[in-house]
Design goal:
By secondary structure, the protein is mostly helical. It contains eleven helices and no strands. The longest helix is centred in the N-terminal third of the chain and has 31 residues. The relative contact order is 0.16. One of its GO terms (biological process) is sulfate assimilation.
Length: 259
């Protein structure tokens, strides 16, 4: 698992160079706009709802002493909860609606790595969008089921150190899942793709760790997160599919062999 996580992270090396080499930046305009607008909406929601949620949490403190301090902490926790859930919604929204733009990027990278033109089944933009929505709605529901109880447990001192790490890993896994599916949708059906990612969850987590980390970089993070994460995910996913025997090619380039 740890080795595969490291591979998912290592795949980010050279992504800027590969994007520029293949002239892929033009494909990221609309996804970047989607990412920016979604981030703004979630940010304003967190700002507006933190006081309300904080006030609701503060009601559990019945005593007068320390009430002001607890209210302040509650407002902070309220904002943290909104941001945590907002990040979950954010990544699934941008991944679902960016599918028609990211799939061609993934395809071009795959052709570059394998040196062949017809390595997959044909899919339309509509099919890619439907597939993206289907995958991300499924992942969103599962992620919320796993994350909400951990967020509630985070109110317990000391235990919140563990739950914070677990929430981050869960978010990373589903972020990597979404990035991998831009490649998988050309080679596997819906259920097969889910099983494939489960079998390679370490790579998904590694990809998602950098994805999530970039979101904490003000402004720039949300602009570059998709280009870099999708590129890194594609190179690693193509390697995994090739190793599984699904892709047969003797023309692998040095980029994929180096992994």
């Amino acid at each position: 698992m740890v080795k595969n996580i490291a591979k998912g992270i290592k795949a980010y090396l050279g992504t800027f160079k590969l994007i520029s080499q293949l002239g892929l930046w033009k494909y990221f305009g609309v996804p970047i706009l989607i990412s920016f607008i979604t981030a703004l909406l979630i940010g304003f929601s967190a700002w507006g709802l933190s006081d309300n949620i904080g006030g609701f949490i503060a009601k559990i403190w019945f005593w007068d002493w320390g009430k002001e301090t607890f209210t302040t902490i509650s407002e902070f926790l309220g904002g943290a909860i909104v941001i945590a859930i907002g990040l979950i919604l954010y990544k699934h929204i941008i991944m679902a609606f960016s599918a028609p733009f990211m799939s061609p990027v993934s395809e071009k990278i795959e052709h570059h790595l394998l040196g062949q033109k017809h390595t997959h089944r044909e899919t339309t933009n509509t099919a890619q969008l439907i597939r993206g929505i289907r995958i991300n709605v499924r992942n969103l529901v599962l992620e919320l089921i796993l994350t909400v109880p951990l967020l509630l447990l985070s109110f317990i001192p000391i235990l919140n150190l563990v739950t914070t790490v677990l929430v981050f890993i869960i978010q990373a896994y589903y972020a990597g899942f979404g990035n991998m599916d831009y490649t998988l949708e050309r080679h596997f059906k819906y259920r097969e793709s889910i099983n494939f990612v489960k079998s390679n969850r370490g790579v998904a987590i590694g990809n998602g760790i950098i994805f999530m980390a970039m979101l904490f970089i003000p402004v720039i993070g949300i602009l570059i997160v998709l280009p870099l994460s999708v590129t890194a995910s594609t190179t690693e996913t193509v390697r995994l599919i090739h190793e599984s025997g699904k892709l047969e090619s003797k023309n692998l380039t040095s980029e994929i062999l180096s992994h």
